[in-house]
Design goal:
CATH class of the largest domain: Alpha Beta
Helix content: 25-40%
Largest sheet: 6 strands, mixed
Radius of gyration: 19 Å
Distance between the termini: 22 Å
Mean pLDDT: 92
CATH topology of the largest domain: Rossmann fold
CATH architecture of the largest domain: 3-Layer(aba) Sandwich
Shape: elongated
Structural class: alpha/beta
Number of domains: 2
């Protein structure tokens, strides 16, 4: 089994290493790149972080590392802890779980809560906090730039792929759009494993899909556990063309 990874190259490379440990081939074919922007993070009682990309961007900012951080999931939290933040909690879920964690651990009287995020988001964890009387703010730290087509040198390897990992609705749309621009027969119908049902939605009924499966929990660990239920081929190194 060969897995197609269309995330930004740093994230795809990290996932490919995890896949190799589990016995999967992978083809790294980014359809997106992440650009850090010059957002300013002001004083806050806590900062909410909803993605590993946000965590990586926040890690590069000159802010007090004792500021409490609430992360959407454990991989995001691990990135922040590695960067030296001393008080990091993980919601181990999605934006709703992060909002619930914030409501249970923070207080409106203790000051502003900031969401450090990308330029485009699907759902804000701040909405329930605003309804509860919190002073909130947002800081954009990165933008997602779509790469509309697969790189030419990766095209011969697409025919070997059998399965794709999809991490968001945007990821699903980018895959569908890039596949539509390919010559017939370049990309086989793929088994799709998505981080959530919402991430599957843009691919419903698309002829590039052989099957659609959503992880039981919005995490890469759950996606890989679902992948493990499908018979796999022997280990081989990932294809990572530039």
């Amino acid at each position: 089994m060969t897995i197609l990874l269309t995330r930004a190259r740093p994230q795809a490379t990290a996932t490919a290493a995890r896949l190799l440990q589990r016995g999967y081939r992978s083809v790294i074919a980014p359809l997106v790149q992440i650009e850090v922007v010059e957002g300013v993070v002001g004083p806050a009682q806590a900062i909410l972080v909803t993605s590993p990309n946000g965590a990586a961007a926040l890690a590069g900012k000159d802010i007090d590392h004792s500021t409490p951080i609430l992360a959407v999931g454990e991989r995001t939290a691990a990135t922040l802890r590695k960067a030296g933040f001393r008080s990091v909690l993980s919601a181990d879920g999605d934006a709703a779980a992060l909002a619930a964690l914030a409501l249970s651990t923070l207080a409106p009287a203790k000051g502003r809560v900031i969401h450090a995020r990308g330029e485009t988001i699907t759902r804000s964890p701040l909405d329930p906090l605003r309804a509860a009387g919190f002073d909130t703010g947002e800081t954009i730290l990165y933008r997602t730039v779509t790469l509309p087509r697969f790189e030419p040198d990766i095209l011969p390897h697409l025919a070997t792929t059998t399965t794709a990992l999809v991490y968001s609705p945007g990821s699903a749309r980018r895959l569908a759009d890039a596949a539509a621009s390919l010559p017939a027969g370049t990309l086989p119908a793929l088994h799709i494993i998505a981080i959530s049902s919402a991430a599957l939605a843009p691919l419903q009924g698309n002829p590039i899909t052989a099957s659609l499966r959503a992880a039981s929990h919005p995490s890469e660990d759950a996606m890989l556990a679902l992948l493990d239920k499908i018979p796999k081929n022997p280990v081989a190194p990932p294809v990572n063309r530039r």
